[in-house]
Amino acid sequence: MPQRKAAALAGLCILVAGCGANSNRADPATTTSTAVPPVAQAALNGLLLSAPQIGAALGTTDVSVATDRTSMEDVSALVSRPECLPIYSPAEANAYANSGSSGVHRQFLGDPSNSHEAEQTVVLFPTARQASAFFAASAQRWQKCSNGGFAHTMSGGREVWNVGPISNTNGVLSTTARISQEVYDHPGAGEGGDRTAQRALTVRNNVAIDILTVSAAANDPAAVNIATQIAAEVPSK
């Protein structure tokens, strides 16, 4: 009986990893990740592409900055359908209302003939979570204007935007609209013919990147290309 009891205790000792004997096995290594800090407002301007970079995306070399602003714009009085405001204009004040955005830097660029135009906008949020929430909300809002049209009233007349389907691919929201110059108050204003606008929106870290391009090309991917180039410059995970 004493021998059987000793054998049982020995077996139990093996099961509980050596009964207090020192182990030579190292503890599992622990890894830590450093969170990427949010982008500061002072860094927004540095995220915008240069005029030559915008020109390359548009397929032209004669592009310059026409306006440079640090405020949003309310164009609700000029667009016939309020649900289409987010598609008509980057950094549209109503589109960003109650989103928590805290800063913006935007530039409008074009060539002398106005055959190639772009608006590049970066919008700051206090946190990456708020930027992501804005993107998710925008994906739903853009759908309300997809496969439909709206009129834009401007000096001298009106143009009609016919919006296509919405794409949400690789974290980039985009759509294309055919712009028809319909009614003008003075001769010659609409001689340029129809043009195509592309819109693109993406977020990186705590920054939303909001892009509009306009050209004569029907399937010009310039807005998406500009958005992804800017996104690559934003510090993120």
TrEMBL record:
Tell me the organism's taxonomic lineage. Answer: Bacteria, Bacillati, Actinomycetota, Actinomycetes, Mycobacteriales
Protein name according to UniProt = Uncharacterized protein
Which InterPro entries does its entry note?
PknH-like_Extracell, PknH-like_Extracell_sf
What organism, scientifically named, is this protein from?
Mycobacterium conspicuum
Pfam families (alphabetical): PknH_C (PF14032)
